């Protein structure tokens, strides 16, 4: 499926990724560093990361369809296409991070022993994956906006 109601599917799906990926990233960081948030939001985090991961390949495929329908490709459109393809790796990383937070939650709830080393490792993972995912969404979006609307004033 490449269109919906006659509109290209890619820009519609992009809006979901632009919301879901940063939301999962920020929620993952919050859950990783704050146990009270983890107890309350861990399953929401897992759901957001899952939906994001499911929509990412569809968004990439719809973008490739749109890219192939365009005639000549500008260098910035090629940059956008190349950066967009990398989002799958960031979505996978967000899913791995969400799973790690969920595993930490389950292990912590089954035992009274503090799991400090695991908590620190998951927090570091969440911060690295979360921040890099947000940065990549911005980079992809910026190049896509530039490709569509021209150079953006700084």
What is this structure's SSE topology?
Blueprint: E1 3-4, E2 7-8, H1 9-33, H2 35-69, H3 75-110, H4 116-149
Helix pairs in contact: 1-2, 1-3, 1-4, 2-3, 3-4
- General shape: elongated
Strand content: under 5%
Radius of gyration from the alpha-carbon trace, in angstroms:
18 Å
**Helix-strand sequence:** EEHHHH
Number of strands: 2
How confident is the prediction overall: mean pLDDT? 91
Helix content: over 70%
How many DSSP H or I helices?
4
Separation, N- and C-terminal Cα atoms: 36 Å
Domain DUF2231: 6-149
Transmembrane segments: 12-34, 41-60, 87-107, 119-138
Protein name: DUF2231 domain-containing protein
Keywords: Membrane, Transmembrane, Transmembrane helix
What would the keywords be for this entry?
DUF2231 domain-containing protein; two-stranded antiparallel sheet; transmembrane; 154 residues; 4 helices; mainly alpha; DUF2231_TM; elongated; membrane; transmembrane helix
């Amino acid at each position: 499926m490449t269109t919906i109601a006659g509109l290209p599917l890619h820009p519609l799906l992009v809006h979901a990724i632009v919301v879901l990926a940063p939301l999962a990233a920020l929620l993952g960081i919050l859950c990783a560093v704050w146990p009270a948030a983890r107890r309350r939001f861990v399953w929401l985090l897992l759901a957001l990361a899952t939906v994001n991961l499911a929509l990412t390949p569809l968004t990439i495929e719809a973008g490739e369809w749109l890219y192939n329908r365009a005639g000549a490709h500008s260098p910035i459109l090629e940059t956008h296409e190349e950066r967009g393809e990398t989002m799958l790796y960031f979505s996978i990383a967000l899913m791995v991070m969400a799973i790690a937070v969920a595993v930490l939650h389950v292990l912590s709830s089954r035992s009274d022993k503090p799991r400090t080393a695991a908590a620190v490792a998951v927090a570091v993972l969440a911060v690295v994956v979360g921040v890099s995912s947000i940065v990549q969404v911005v980079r992809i979006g910026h190049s896509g906006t530039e490709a569509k609307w021209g150079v953006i004033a700084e």
